[in-house]
């Protein structure tokens, strides 16, 4: 566990003091308990839950109701961590009022801040949220909610023009009042440059070691989801393989009759068993209900012959 719960000023202080921020996603109570006992600084309830928890093909389908459903148990399970809630696609692109109303719901559920995807084009929305007292984390580079428009899941900002846009977007988010931003799938050199250009901390995922912090998706880092295996993910534990082995062993032992063993089972006193089974034998044998008489069916009438 970290010494103290991270705060908003703590994000900037970490950058100033060169302390790396460690973030991880979580989507349920059990995961949150594990993260709460770990040294990570903050938990992101990411809309990646659409893929790893709900089986969607991307994050765009995720709704506010689904985000709230997963956010609440994480908040219960990780009281000592700073909690970031993703705003799902469609929850902030209609108007500033819509964005504030939806962000309010996430904050009322217990989030410490919200995360939105986009750069200069969402600066107005970020301003409205910050004016409303809602801390905002930005998200630039590969933005999964609009990945199709970016040409799929690929590295962003490799060419100068695209890189310049990411730098401008990072500055726009900082000026709009964002307190931190995620840089996803951008070249290491660009991420390091952006990190040096702004005073708010950058959190990288597939963005190299020059960011102020890192974030990973739970199911990726523990080998629980193999539909997508991006190169930037490192598996820190093979939990998926351990579970597969456990399932095979369970089936084998049930077939072999070695599970459940006496230590997994419960006994009763012999005399209680004898009384129970003897009494049962003395119980009057229930008589079956008489079968109802079959109802006579009318004889089928011959079809009338056409004249
Ligand atoms: O939804 C998510 O998990 C994210 C991370 C990839 C940063 O946004």
Q: What is the topological layout?
A:
Blueprint: H1 8-17, E1 21-25, H2 29-36, E2 42-45, H3 49-52, H4 64-77, E3 82-86, H5 96-109, E4 113-115, H6 123-131, E5 136-141, H7 160-176, E6 180-184, H8 188-197, E7 202-205, E8 213-216, H9 218-221, H10 239-256, H11 270-282
Parallel strand pairs: 1-2, 1-8, 2-3, 3-4, 4-5, 5-6, 6-7, 7-8
Helix pairs in contact: 2-4, 4-5, 5-6, 6-7, 7-8
Short synopsis of the structure:
The chain is of the alpha/beta class.
CATH hierarchy: architecture of the largest domain? Alpha-Beta Barrel
Largest sheet: 8 strands, parallel, barrel
Q: Globular, elongated, flat, extended or rod-shaped: what is the shape?
A: elongated
Q: End-to-end span in angstroms?
A: 95 Å
Number of domains: 2
Low-confidence stretches: none
Average residue pLDDT: 93
Strand content: 5-15%
Listing every helix as H and every strand as E from the N terminus to the C terminus, the arrangement reads HEHEHHEHEHEHEHEEHHH
Bound molecules: 3-methyl-2-oxobutanoic acid
Question: What is the gyration radius calculated from CA atoms?
Answer: 29 Å
Number of helices: 11
Which fold name corresponds to the CATH topology of the largest domain? TIM Barrel
Count the E strands: 8
CATH superfamily of the largest domain: Phosphoenolpyruvate-binding domains
Helices and strands: which structural class?
A: alpha/beta
**What's the arrangement of strands in the largest beta sheet?**
1-2-3-4-5-6-7-8
Helix content: 25-40%
Task: Please write the CATH class name of the largest domain.
Answer: Alpha Beta
């Amino acid at each position: 566990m970290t010494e103290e719960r991270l705060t908003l000023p703590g994000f900037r202080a970490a950058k100033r003091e060169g302390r790396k921020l460690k973030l991880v996603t979580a989507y349920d109570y059990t995961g949150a308990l594990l993260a709460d006992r770990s040294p990570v600084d903050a938990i992101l309830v990411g809309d990646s839950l659409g893929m790893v928890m709900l089986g969607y093909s991307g994050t765009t389908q995720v709704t506010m109701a689904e985000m709230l459903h997963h956010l609440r148990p994480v908040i219960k399970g990780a009281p000592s961590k700073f909690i970031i809630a993703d705003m799902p696609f469609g929850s902030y692109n209609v108007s500033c009022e819509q964005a504030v109303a939806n962000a309010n719901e996430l904050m009322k559920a217990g989030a410490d801040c919200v995360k939105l995807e986009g750069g200069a084009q969402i600066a107005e929305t970020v301003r409205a949220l910050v004016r409303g007292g809602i801390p905002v984390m930005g998200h630039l580079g590969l933005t999964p909610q609009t990945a199709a428009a970016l040409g799929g899941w690929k590295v962003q900002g490799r060419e100068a023009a695209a890189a310049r846009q990411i730098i401008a977007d990072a500055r726009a988010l900082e000026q709009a009042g964002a307190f931190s931003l995620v840089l996803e799938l951008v070249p290491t050199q660009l991420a390091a440059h952006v990190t040096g250009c702004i005073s708010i901390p950058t959190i990288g995922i597939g963005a190299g070691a020059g960011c102020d912090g890192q974030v990973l998706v739970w199911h990726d880092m523990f080998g629980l989801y193999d539909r997508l295996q991006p190169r930037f993910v490192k598996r820190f534990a093979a939990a998926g393989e351990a579970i597969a082995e456990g399932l095979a062993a369970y089936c084998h032992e049930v077939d072999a009759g070695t599970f459940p063993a006496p230590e997994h089972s419960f006994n009763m006193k012999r005399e209680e068993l004898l009384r129970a089974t003897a009494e049962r034998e003395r119980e009057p044998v229930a008589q079956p209900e008489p079968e109802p008489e079959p109802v006579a069916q009318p004889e089928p009438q011959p079809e009338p012959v056409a004249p």
